[in-house]
Amino acid sequence: MAETSSLISGVAQRYAGSLFDLALEAKSVADVEKNLGQFEALVNGSADLRRLIESPVFSAEDQVKAISAILAKAKIGGLVANFLRVVATNRRLFAVPSMIQAFRNIAAENRGEVSADVTSAHALTAAQQTELKATLKSVAGKDVTINVTVDPSILGGLIVKLGSRQIDTSLRTKLSSLKLALKEVG
After folding, report:
1. Is the separation of the CB atoms in 35 and 96 below 8 Å?
2. What domain count does the chain have?
3. How many C-beta neighbours within 10 Å does residue 67 have?
4. Domain residues for 101?
5. Which backbone phi and psi does 150 adopt, to 5 degrees?
């Protein structure tokens, strides 16, 4: 499993790096980032699209046709459309979510920002996100962009991944620790 994850992250880094270089050359990093976010929202909102990009059953030709139609309907063009067609042609659509994340990380690093992945039990308000960014900025010493994921299974609290550090203040983890401590006592 770790080998597969490593393979995907390696592929994602290479593709994202190439896309970033092209976007930087075209002076369209912000547009590319916006279009990638739009495509990511489409993937997250559609089980059928997710199945298309994850399943090895579809041929490269079918994936290219489907992706082209989706991009036209969503009015996503330019570098991102060409990039996604190349990814589909090369049978690498399964790594698109990782490519999008890698692109965001590269773009943030280029802007002098650090990216943090935050998992919360419920959606954070704008005020909570602003406060969290300020707190993380004081820790990291740089501006921090946050990618928030909602996971109700953590019950409460946050899980923050900033670089190689992870801070887990989730209620699920605290309850698991308490359960373990109680087993050791009894």
Report:
1. no
2. 2
3. 23
4. 2-107
5. -100, 125
